[in-house]
Structures are given as structure tokens and as C-alpha cells.
């Protein structure tokens, strides 16, 4: 077995630059990894639908760990088989909606390829536009979250510029009943024990690739467990300090200077990628 048989990579702030683009150099580097026989997985907080848009940019057929580990699917060649799914428990949905209404926050309520929203102000509309520019999500405007038919969303996100306060409040409210993950301008609510690290662990077991044969790249708070699980967890130079502290290595360059591509190219030169079977 090669040193690394699985490349697991985050999208925003990692694979993509600050303009939400994947450079040609990065595309070429990731494709070269697949040419060695190693597998590649996109691991993201995005929905599966939005991750597939990036997959299309890469021109590859990949495993996708989405919604921060709540949903895992196989490549298109395997009919997008659902490997794992763990939605937000239905009995907590009303509580999240009530919290948002009482505090005049708006939610991103994920429903397959749609994100249901109910912005209440110009500030909320600005956040909708910011999120859409970053992820290319497709929004559906609703009058009442409670009337959304799908009661099994993989995640619900509280959109806010005060992520610290909202994170603290939600953690007190739900304790260990939900996984609460802080983002740059949003706070994610997921089923308990859902995070990228657990998602990567499930993909590792499904593919029968040990953690020591996985290299992972990430930049955010939601990447900490993800990088800790991988045999080689690399934090981006532009990553949060907590993420860098959890990683085994920090990339030499940031996401605007092809940080992922530089590291992959060096590992390819050293012959570190290859198939899981010898």
C-alpha cells in the first residue's frame, strides 16, 4: 500500500481561493493524484449539491463528505450511493426555529439542492448574497420555516455576524444534543457527534483505508477533528490558529497562492500517492 491512498480536501478557504475559484494549477495537481490510483474526496460543510459544482470544476468523479460529515456519497460511477446520512433530529428543529425568531436571526434550512431562507432585514439579505457568492447555493424564500415539508435536514444554519455569542448560546441550549459548529458568518446545527472528522472516519472504514494512509487539507474550525483523524493533517497557511495547532503540518502557502497544489506536487515528486491495493 502506498503512503497515502486517500486525499481528503476541504473546499472553501482551502481548495478555493478568496475569489471562490479553483486555480488551474490546483485542478491539475488533484487530477494527478487520481492518476496514481489514489482516491480523492471533497470534505465540506457545503451541501452535496454545492460540492458537486466543485467536483464538476475539477472534472473528476469523487466521493463527497458534505454537511460537515452528516452526508456521505459515493462517486457518480457508483450511482451516488448514500454511504451515510445523519439528519438533524426532528424534535430539535422547532427549538432552532424558535431561537432564530426570538433573536431575529435568519436560518439556512437545507433541503437537498435547495436552501430555504427567510431574511428579515437588509443585513440578512447581505448575508444571503454573501453565502450565495461563496457557495453558489440555490435559495428558496419562505414565509414560515415550520411549513417546510422536509423534516430531516442534514443541517440548519443560523446566519449571524456575531458567531461567538450565538455559538455560546446554542451550546448552552443543546449541550450534547446537537453538534454546534462555528463558522465565519454562521453557526451550524447538526446531529450530535456529526463533524468532518467523524465523516472522514466513516469514509475511511467504508473504503478500508486506514487513517495513516490519508492526507487531509483544511483551514476552518470545522476542520480540526478532520485534520486530527488523518495520518497527515495539513492546515492552510490562512487557517485559524486553532486549526493550525491541531494539524501535523501547515502549508507553506495560503489558498490564494496555490497552497494545496504546492504540497501535493511535492508529495507526488516523492511518490507518496498510490492505490490502496499493492
Automatic annotation (TrEMBL):
Transmembrane regions: none
GO cellular component: cytosol
Highest taxon of source: Eukaryota
Pfam families per record: Hydrolase_3
GO MF: magnesium ion binding; phosphatase activity
InterPro entries referenced in this protein's UniProt entry, alphabetically: Cof (IPR000150), HAD-like_sf (IPR036412), HAD-SF_hydro_IIB (IPR006379), HAD_sf (IPR023214)
PROSITE patterns on file: COF_2
Coiled coil: none
Protein name in the entry: Uncharacterized protein
Species assigned in the record: Spongospora subterranea
Amino acid at each position: 500500500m502506498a503512503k497515502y491512498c486517500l486525499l481528503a480536501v476541504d473546499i472553501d478557504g482551502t481548495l478555493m481561493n478568496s475569489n471562490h475559484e479553483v486555480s488551474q494549477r490546483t485542478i491539475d495537481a488533484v487530477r494527478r493524484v487520481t492518476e496514481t490510483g489514489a482516491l480523492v474526496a471533497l470534505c465540506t460543510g457545503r451541501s452535496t449539491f454545492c460540492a458537486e459544482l466543485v467536483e464538476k470544476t475539477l472534472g473528476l468523479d469523487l466521493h463527497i463528505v458534505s454537511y460537515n460529515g452528516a452526508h456521505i456519497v459515493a462517486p457518480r460511477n457508483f450511482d451516488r450511493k448514500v454511504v451515510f446520512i445523519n439528519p438533524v433530529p426532528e424534535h430539535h428543529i422547532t427549538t432552532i426555529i424558535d431561537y432564530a425568531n426570538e433573536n431575529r436571526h435568519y436560518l439556512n434550512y437545507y433541503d437537498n439542492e435547495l436552501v430555504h431562507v427567510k431574511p428579515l432585514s437588509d443585513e440578512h439579505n447581505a448575508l444571503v448574497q454573501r453565502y450565495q457568492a461563496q457557495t453558489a447555493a440555490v435559495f428558496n424564500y419562505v414565509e414560515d420555516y415550520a411549513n417546510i415539508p422536509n423534516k430531516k435536514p442534514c443541517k440548519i444554519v443560523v446566519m449571524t455576524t456575531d458567531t461567538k455569542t450565538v455559538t455560546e448560546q446554542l451550546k448552552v441550549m443543546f449541550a450534547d444534543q446537537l453538534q454546534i459548529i462555528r463558522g465565519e458568518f454562521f453557526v451550524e446545527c447538526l446531529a450530535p457527534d456529526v463533524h468532518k472528522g467523524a465523516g472522514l472516519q466513516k469514509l475511511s472504514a467504508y473504503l478500508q483505508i486506514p487513517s495513516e494512509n490519508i492526507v487531509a487539507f483544511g483551514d476552518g474550525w470545522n476542520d480540526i477533528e478532520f485534520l486530527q483523524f488523518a495520518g497527515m493533517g495539513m492546515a492552510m497557511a490562512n487557517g485559524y490558529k486553532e486549526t493550525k495547532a491541531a494539524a501535523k503540518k501547515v502549508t507553506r502557502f495560503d489558498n490564494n497562492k496555490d497552497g494545496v497544489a504546492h504540497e501535493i506536487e511535492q508529495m507526488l515528486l516523492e511518490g507518496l500517492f498510490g492505490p490502496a491495493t499493492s
